[in-house]
């Protein structure tokens, strides 16, 4: 494990009370912009129907974030507050980093219980398989 990760945990613990009081729209918009830049251009056309127009909630447990996103023909954007969550993905920030940087895959994080997916199983599998096929979003 990276020696910097325990230091992040201490920082996350300190800022979590503040983060939880802030509106979730700005970080959700930032995540949507990042996904539109690094993931959307690489999504295969056959995966789009299963992933589109459904709310996905990304929960970052150590920071207290719950970001609700939706993919539509224009790309990733905010999901309506009233939209039912089709898929919830829960992990601490370091686990997401390990997944997106290719250090670990979703299966390993799932079996370590570092990543939890709840909701539509088919959508979750399509998303997992798509991310596996794409590979790391950044080095």
Automatic annotation (TrEMBL):
* Stored InterPro entries: SCP2_sterol-bd_dom, SCP2_sterol-bd_dom_sf, UbiT
Tell me, which GO biological process terms does this entry list?
A: ubiquinone biosynthetic process
- Keywords (A to Z) from UniProt: Ubiquinone biosynthesis
Pfam family of this protein, just one? Answer: SCP2
- Pathway in which the depicted protein is active: Cofactor biosynthesis; ubiquinone biosynthesis
Q: Which residues form the SCP2 domain?
A: 45-132
- Purpose of the protein: Required for O(2)-independent ubiquinone (coenzyme Q) biosynthesis. Likely functions as an accessory factor.
Q: So what family is this one in?
A: Belongs to the UbiT family.
- Return the protein name: Ubiquinone biosynthesis accessory factor UbiT
Q: Which species is listed as the source?
A: Piscinibacter terrae
Encoding gene per record: ubiT
């Amino acid at each position: 494990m990276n020696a910097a990760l325990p230091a992040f945990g201490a920082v996350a613990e300190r800022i979590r009370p503040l983060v939880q009081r802030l509106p979730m729209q700005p970080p959700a918009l930032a995540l949507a912009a990042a996904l539109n830049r690094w993931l959307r251009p690489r999504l295969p056309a056959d995966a789009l129907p299963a992933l589109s127009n459904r709310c996905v909630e990304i929960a970052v447990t150590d920071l207290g974030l719950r970001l609700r996103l939706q993919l539509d023909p224009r790309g990733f954007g905010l999901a309506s507050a009233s939209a039912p969550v089709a898929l919830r993905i829960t992990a601490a920030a370091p686990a997401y980093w390990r997944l997106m940087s290719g250090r670990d895959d979703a299966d390993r994080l799932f079996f370590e219980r570092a990543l939890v997916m709840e909701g539509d199983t088919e959508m979750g599998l399509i998303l997992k398989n798509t991310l596996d096929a794409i590979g790391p979003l950044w080095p």
